[in-house]
Amino acid sequence: MDKLKLLLWPFAALYGGVTTLRNTAYSKGWFASSKFNLPVIAVGNLTVGGTGKTPHVEYLLRLLHNYKVATLSRGYKRSTRGFILADEQATAASIGDEPYQYHQDFPGVQVAVSEMRVEGVKQLLQLNPQPDVIVLDDAYQHRAIQPTLNLLLTDYNRLFYKDFILPAGLLRESRHGAKRADAVIVSKCPAALATAEKQSIKNRIRKYSQPDTPVFFTGFRYGQLVSIGSATHFNKHVILLTGIANAKPLKHYLKEHQFKVEHHAEFPDHYSYTSTDLENLQKLLETKPNDTVILTTRKDAVKLMDNQLRKYSQALPIFYIPIEVYFLDGEEAFNNLVLSHVAQYR
After folding, report:
1. Domain-by-domain residue ranges, the chain?
2. Coil, strand, or helix at residue 202?
């Protein structure tokens, strides 16, 4: 442990004590926790920052396409409050960037946001048609509701069992919070992850999870670039534009595939772009080779296509790169785990 972590350790111990006491209160029934008579699948993590929750939620939405599915998120950094069901008036500002992405890409899914998840589920159950299954986005620490299936993500590049509680590390709660997981997914894995290393990771995870908790390994697969602006063709000279928690996997992919990143315009996660940002990108573009385009993520693209920014983004050569989760192995076992769980409620 380095010197800074040692200095922060008393604060981490205090924070860890508070979260442990809170978890104990829920586990013992001292705090109320609601359960519902339908499958409620929670996707979350123990750490602050990006572990790839959004692509994994999207994987579940595709997997559950034969059901009436709803997603419920807090709607981080949205401009509204309370329960909102996404409709044609929804924007990234009104419901949050990730829920708006689900709304854009999965038109058959009921997408809702609510700070109070229990109230949010109650509202969803009033809808006609009522959902068959609800996917809770980033809800691992939301103990006021009891999911029927709890999926815990941990980033291969920052495995939770190597991390420390805030502020000494990035853990939101103790490593032992993994005991609540019905399955653990190690995300952002390299494609050639060795069998021996997988087994080592499983063994270390199971020091904190239940001993029979299944552990899966996933990676990201990037697709063909999609234009949302003025260009239809691209070369490999790009200005990278991101407002996500961790752009390193994307940058690694671009380097592997011989893209030339002329500049990385890096903004904080959930950043709300402005017309000034796009005007500045136009000026920056003018200083780069003529065939340079702007490359961004799907999460950023839905914000750039918002009504307030559309006229600016459509005038620029902007592309986004789609991303999908794939399983290194065990995909059928994971799918069966989820589908058999949901089928119990039919």
Report:
1. 3-67+132-220+327-343, 226-321
2. helix
Reply yes or no on whether the pLDDT at 115 is more than 90. Answer: yes
Neighbours of 203 (CB within 10 A): 10
pLDDT digit string, tens, across residues 271-323 = 999 999 999 999 999 999 989 999 999 999 999 998 889 999 999 999 999 99
The count of other CB atoms within 10 Å of the CB of residue 248 is 10
Distances 211 to 8, 140, 187, 205, 207 between C-alpha atoms, Å = 32, 19, 20, 9, 8
CA distance 201 to 281: 42
**Region of residue 258 (left: phi > 0; alpha: psi -120 to 50; beta: else):** left
Six-digit token string for 47: 């750490």
The 3-state DSSP class for residue 123 equals helix
Q: What is the pLDDT of residues 15-49, one digit of tens each?
A: 888 999 998 998 989 999 999 999 999 999 999 87
Reported CATH class of domain 226-321: alpha beta
Hey, what are 84's tokens?
């909102």
Angle at 324 between CA 319 and CA 328, to 5 degrees: 140
| Bridge-based pairing state of the strands 110-113 and 84-85 | antiparallel
- For the domain covering 3-67+132-220+327-343, report its CATH number: 3.40.50
DSSP reduced 3-state for 219: strand
Instruction: Say how far apart CA 218 and CA 85 lie, in whole Å.
Output: 31
Specify the pLDDT at position 235.
85
Residue where the block lists tokens 């691992």: 140
Q: Smallest Cα–Cα separation from 101: which of 308, 323, 301?
A: 301
Tokens of 295: 């490359």
